[in-house]
Predict the structure.
Amino acid sequence: MDSSYLIYVLVYLLTIFLALSETLPVSVSALVGALFMAWFGINGGLFTYEEAFSFIDLKLTILLLGIMIVVEVASRSGIFRLISLYTTKLVGNSPRKLFITLCFLSAAASLFLSDIAAFLMVSATAVTISKFLGYDPRPFLISAALMINLGGTGVLIGSVSNMIIGLNAGMSFTEFAEYLLPCELSLWVLTTAILYFYFRDRLQGTPREIQYDVWASIEDRGAVFRSALILGALIIFFVMGDTIGAPTEAVAIGCAVIALATSGYDPRDVFSRLDWETIFFVIGFLFVVRGLERTGVLQEFSSWIMGLASGSVLIITVLMLFLSGIVSIFLANIAVALTFVPTVKLLDVANKKPIWSALVLGTNLGGATMPVSSVVLVMALGVLKQEGISIDLGEVTRIGFITSMIQMVYAAIYLIFYFRLVI
Amino acid sequence: MASKVSDWVERIKDRKFKHFKESYEHEKEKIEEAMGKPRITITVEMPEGYRGQEKDFRELETDKEFLDEVEKLVKKELERKRKNRHSEE
């Protein structure tokens, strides 16, 4: 690597600093980084103006937009609220049963929804019902946030970092689930048990009878059925993608168009509610990483990993899991995924499936270690403040740290045995 | 140092929650409605003749004592309507 490339490393670090310190909103930080990278890269001869356009990943952007549109349309119909209310009604009013149900519901919702959409679905239900029944909402809300963070791990559309890794690894929807869903499902049980054990003394209260009509919260039943059909079609086509030859991003955008055409909602309203902050962050940060890739810095990082692990897939996998997990504590997992993806691609290893899986697990599981490292934990703290309920930040950090560390150790054991890395 | 970290967390939390707040309130309202606890939102303009008290006026939105008084007023009004309905019947 040439020392003149130092400027590009500085641009990368500046982007991270701006995003991390929140000096600028994260999307703007990434776009500022991309602007600097483009300026120095083109003028310094690192890449041409035309080449710079190839830094934008159209497939990833289409996948993100498609999923966001489908979820926004479905969310407007109230289908997620209906599922949430039905589930909690079915389980009864016992605080412990309600707690376990909400843990599983949160994780399940996060499999197909973005973390924020899943948290919106669960948090409003958890707070309203627990307050109505006279239970302490804190264990419900913090556990929901931790389970949502875990919940997106097992499927390709579960989180933005999964989409980035999955698309770059060339994994189909089913292949992704095949490698990671068994780990995620066992982690649901393990994490719920830890959270239950931790909060068990606070899950007290005499169950009170409440009667409510779940359909009373729905304005248009037809919209709910249409959304259910589209969500069902989305999942079926994702699963059948390999057989019918439909790439994931094509299925996502196809379903998004059908959702928009059949919903009757004003598309401008739908578009205005999309998570543009994430989309622009991905576009901008990816541009910075692609520029950095041209300098050879990531190749050196990749060689360093190879050297450290002496080429052993077992060591690289465990190293990738913990390295990406620890970095995700401090940095948004999208940024970690974007940085590590080219590094994994450059590794001189024949079988990269365990390493890709380790990266997925690391970026997802490391994200909930500290309150500020997880968007949903931040949301949970915001909801509690909004409801006038105080919470000890140290306690949130403690429970986040405990669950993340246990999950990471479990994930390492899973990867070793699942991919038979010890033989 | 600890207070600086806490302030930083608080700042990030407030900024990120700001966008989520509206959707959360909407969801909560719908759920409360399903549970037989509807709510109403009333916009109150600052009355004439209180110039210079804009801050006091805005703070009423989260003033517990004031909100309790509003709740009492709502109860009184609902009682009155109930009595009127009974007398009409």
